[in-house]
Every structure is written in C-alpha cells, then in structure tokens.
Amino acid sequence: MQVFNYEKSGAATFHTAVGKLDEAASMTVPLLRFKGGRYFGGPAQIGVEDGSAGEVTLRFADGLNGTVQFPGEQAQPISRFLVPEKMPFWWTQLSDDPPSGKEGFRSMQWVATSKNGIRYTWDAKLGMGTDGVYPLQLGSTFDWGSALRTFDCRLQAETEVFDCLPTSNSFNGEKPDMPLEIQRLKFRVVGRDVIGELQPAWDLAQRMTLNGWQEGSYSCNGPTSYCMSERERSARLYKASTQLGGICITGYCSGYGHITLLPNSGAWVIEDERTGQPGRGVFLDVQDHTVILQTSDYLASGSPTFHLGTSSLQGANTSAGETTTSMSLLRFKDGRHFGGPAQSGSEATNAGAAKLSFSMRYGSDYTLTDFATGNVTLPGEASKRIRRLQLEPAPSTGIEHMLGEYYFQFSYSLPSAPRWVRLTQVEGNIAKNEDGSVLCQQRDASNRYRMFCVLYPTESITPGSINGKGQTYVEVTPFNAGASIERTVLRTRDRHGNWLGLGKVNLPGLAIPAD
Hints:
With 515 residues, the protein is mainly β. The protein contains no helices and 35 strands. The chain has an 8-stranded antiparallel beta barrel with strand order 9-10-11-12-13-14-15-16. An 8-stranded antiparallel β-sheet has the order 22-21-20-19-28-27-24-23, with no helix packed on it. Strand 21 and strand 22 (304-312) form a beta hairpin.
C-alpha cells in the first residue's frame, strides 16, 4: 500500500505499508517513512527507513470498495478511482488516425456461477449500434459458432452500465445446462475488468454474478467494408494474442497496423534500481487510454516526496511500433496530513517531463508483451526499463506458481471431456489436479509461465505428441488475470485459490431488480 500525503509543514511525502489480508479482507500494519533516496537527475542512492507514522487499518468490502483508518483518524470509506470512458467510444467513431469507425467492437471473456455451482463461460462481443442500442453477441467459449445469442444493450450514461435484453429471436426456452439462455443482463467495464449481474431465463428469481476480462477493442476504416489492408485496422489491447497478426472484423485481412497497448495498473519498479533496499517507485493506473503516473521519490535534501502526471497513451502507426506518452510531473504542497483536518493541496512545482513507452514485443526471442514491461524516462535522466512489481516471482525451478483454476479446451478430446480444472498439487516437476486426470509440466525453461497439459495421460508426457485423451498448451502472464496467450485457456484462480476477477461488487446500476 502506497500513501501519497503531506507533512504538517505542508510538504508532500509518501508512506508505505506491506501486509497480508486476513480472511475478513482486513489488515493492520505500520505506515513506514523513508529518506535519503534518489532524486530526479541524481546519482544512484539507496534510501533508509525513517520511522513509522503509526498503524493503518484496511478493510475491503469487495473488489472496488472498503475503508481505511489512518493514524489519528476515524475509519473512512475508500473506493477504486474510476476514470470515465471517453464518449462516444473510439471504435464507433469515424477517424483516419487511427483508422476506425466503419466496423468496430469490444471483445471480452465472461464467467458466472449459478446457485447450484454450475460454471458458465462466454465469449462476448459488443458492437456498434444505432439510436443508442449496442448489439451484443454471446457465444460459448472455444465453440463460438455452434451456439450464439444476441442482445440489445442500452448504455446508462450516468452509471456507465449496459442494460441488455435478448432479441426476439435469441431465446428458445432451453434448460439450465444451456448457459446462453439469459432473460436480462447488466454489465460495466472497469479498465480491464468486467463486472455485472445476469438473470437466467430458466430461473427468473436467480441472480448470477458476472465477472470477466476485456481483451481489447477493435475498429477499421477502409475504402471497402472488408478493410482489406492492416493499415486500415486499429486495436487497443489489454491482452496479447497469437492471432493479432491475422484476425479480422469481416472478410479477409492480415492483421492490425495501429496498436495501442494498455499496460497493467499497479506498482512498477525501475529494473536497475531493484536492490531490495528502499528506493523509488513508479505507480501506473491505466483505464481506457488514460494513464496516471505517480512516483514515490526524493528531493536533493533527502526528504521523501511524490510527483504526479496524467496523459493519454498514443498508439503506434505500425504493428511493430511503440505505445508512448509524455506528461509533466508535478509536485504539490499543503494537503492533508495524518490526523489533520480536511485540506486540499496545490501545485508547488513542475519537475519536468516524464515519458513512458511500451512495445508489442520484448526480448531477443520476440516474445509477445506481458503488459508488465516498459520504459520510463524521468526528468533529467535517460530512459530505463521498468517492470510491474511482482510479489511472488516465478522460481528458477519448479511449477508451483502455475497451480490454480483453469478452463481448458483439450485438443483430440472427446466432447464430454471435463473443461474446468483446478491444479492443486505438485509431484516432482508435474502439476496435477486432485484425481490425477490432468497432468501439466513446464513447456520450456526459457519461460516459467508456459506449460503443457494432458487429459487422462498415459505413462509419459511429451509436448507435441498425443499422450492421452486430450492436450493443451498454456501460457499465462502473472498480471494479466484471466488471460492466456492461447485462446484455448482461461485462468480464474491463482495458486492460493484467490479469484482473479473483482467478484461481486457494489456499484450503482448493476443490480437487476426483483420485478
């Protein structure tokens, strides 16, 4: 937990707290202060701990809301800072730079669980509409063409919630084992996450919590309705895909030429300053294409401080180019201090320009980006590599970090083969589920987040060979919750059993009324 606040003198400062949430999603831990670290344009310098301001208590009610109690203060509500999406949506508007407007959609993957424990998953595509109605298509994940339902969705502007009803030809009264029979659904996109509620047509009294992940939004503006050239197609991406070079909106196409990467939100570290000692931090919050950058750093005097800037991400004009942004980093003064009265800060000084850049590919093997690697240029300094702070890095050996819950599509499997798999144990270099019907091993040593899984395995597991009733390749990244590079995998829980979505959250407009 990083707190950007002020001293009694009015000087900007920061405090850090680290702890583990208990079963009630709560923790009480010290708020630590630091001094003597590196300042903008200064030499490499390690900070030192400078006491504690007291204890802070955090409690979370859901994935977006909670309370915080700072030293000397009463508990008060906190909530996730949500940046309203710019309206109208970029992928619905005619534009030449980037090309967009003739055809466009937002792609998502959704998951829900019924009251009797049946799990459902869908691919969802929200398209361009007319007269305030957005068409929504739902298809079974991994089997899009065999079952498809359509909905008409209206956007509630004040809450940013989509309220969707089935079209007249989409409901045929099928039973609960058919997951697409929905009477009504509501959802909202929050950065990369999707949250909502749905009412199944086969039990109108039931409400199911909807969670999901946005893959990205896509659009084209070509001279024909088919957008024949990749130069005519644009994408804003939360997820890398091996299909990016060859997916289409309609007709034949070869890829996307204009790509804006939307990197992972959270705490990042400057790679060559990660010493295990107190130092500087870089905090990014990316929603839609807005990026907010805050730094925890120091003044030349050694005093701790923070800077803040905000801007928009600019995509590349080629599929191999970089997503970039530049902004002024501002320092503030005279805001609220712990135990003090309500007080707004004001701008103190402009430290200069900061730059960020993110590439579609990284590394010598041209691996698709993990959305957690980039570059930062701070005022008075050269460009430096930054990475998302990983509290549980993958070990040099072993496969324990790949345990968790997955939704697999197995190649060569029977239609009745199980799809939901929870890997819970490790034997040697093999991860397995409880009954041993699925075994997974590391795919290769160069990437700790790749593995090869076999359904009903035979005696050995050999990647590339048929070793049982089904097999699949898995590649996940630590921070891209829910996503896999391959379209055949969805990850829903981590090794500790933690749900990777926001869960059921309290936001205005999401609940479907009883009547």
